[in-house]
Design goal:
The N and C termini lie far apart (40 Å). The protein has a single domain, classed as START domain (Alpha-D-Glucose-1,6-Bisphosphate, Chain A, domain 4, 2-Layer Sandwich). By secondary structure, the protein is an alpha+beta fold. It is built from 3 helices and 7 strands, in the order βααββββββα. 24% of the residues lie in helices and 43% in strands. It has a 7-stranded antiparallel sheet with strand order 1-7-6-5-4-3-2.
């Protein structure tokens, strides 16, 4: 198993950025087309990215405005089934706003390139949406 680690700086406060992981309307601006979120320990984290691409997991740890840990996997896939991997998001207050550090781990080796590419696509979308709505 291996992991993907990515960072992105966003010109907004950590509490603003954090909401884009816990509020459906904000999450859908950057990650998917439909979602069901229950941002509490053991709560549902389900996101339809597009058509048949559906993430299934749950909130494992929540430290408001500083850290989220989610289980993560894909409905209908055997290589990365629902809840089989973990994604940790850390939110650091920095002078220019927030540094978001993502660590997606417990990934099978052959699934890592696709997930790395996906995060390289989606994190800039998060940045764009947060900064556009916060300005």
């Amino acid at each position: 198993m291996t992991e993907v680690v990515k960072e992105i700086s966003i010109r907004a406060k950590p509490e603003t950025v954090f909401a884009y992981f816990t509020e459906v309307d904000k999450l859908l601006l950057w990650l998917g087309i439909e979602a069901r979120l229950e941002p509490k320990i053991g709560g549902i984290f389900h996101v339809t990215i597009s058509g048949e691409r559906k993430i299934r997991g749950e909130y494992l740890e929540i430290q408001p405005h500083s850290r989220l840990l989610l289980s993560w996997g894909w409905e209908g896939r055997t290589d990365v089934p629902p809840g089989s991997t973990k994604v940790e998001f850390m939110f650091y207050s920095v002078p220019e706003g927030t540094l978001v550090r993502l660590r997606h781990y417990d990934l099978p080796e052959d699934a890592m390139p696709l997930h790395a590419k996906s995060w390289e696509h989606n994190l800039p979308r998060l940045k764009l949406q947060v900064e556009e709505k916060s300005s």
